[in-house]
Amino acid sequence: KYQKIYALGFIPALLCIFFNIKFSIIMLALYDFKKPNLFTWVLNKAQKIFVEGQRGKQDILKLGIKSDKIVIFQHWCDQIRFCYVPKSNEQLKVLFIGRPIRIKGKHIIQECERLTKGIDYEYIENVPYEDLPKRYQMADVVVVPSLYSEGFSRVVIEAASCGCAMLTSNKGALPELVKDFGKAIEPTPQNFAECLFKLKRYKLALEKIQVNTALYAAQNFSEKNAEVFL
Question: What's residue 3's pLDDT?
Fold first, then answer.
């Protein structure tokens, strides 16, 4: 009935194994594997293993998986819905979007806010999908201060498509994801404050960064990235 089965993570993969169904698996997180374990058995049952970028590939190579089974993919978003709009904020506007749990680093940006003046901060979570583009389009900078091995963040892809300057932590796949248009730093309040002050001070440079970020996103985060699955 079906030409291909894509298992989104390990639980669906186990179901495919249980029902003796051929499948490929899509890895949507980094696990920081150290050596072969039970996951090796599951992945070896898959026809293909789709991973997020080089960081994702290196993660499962440590399990002893053969590289010819691994396919690298890149996330994408709707480039019509998530599109660049010139910013018109009087003060630098910084957006944090995500769950208020410690590993997401919201407290780092809150402490950064106490260290800075003349910068507007907004913290949002659980925003309806249809409202997301306008929230990105209103921001000058989007911060992703994750304290764990973050995978290929959709926040980065959506925000970049809307022309936001990107400032992330140097954890997980974030440095690989933003290396061509953003900046990845050690996630401390002082480091974020220093970088935000520079963006606030050099407004023309910030505008150029925003335009270049949107252009990069249009070329690299579009629906053509889905072709790797087809």
Answer: 81
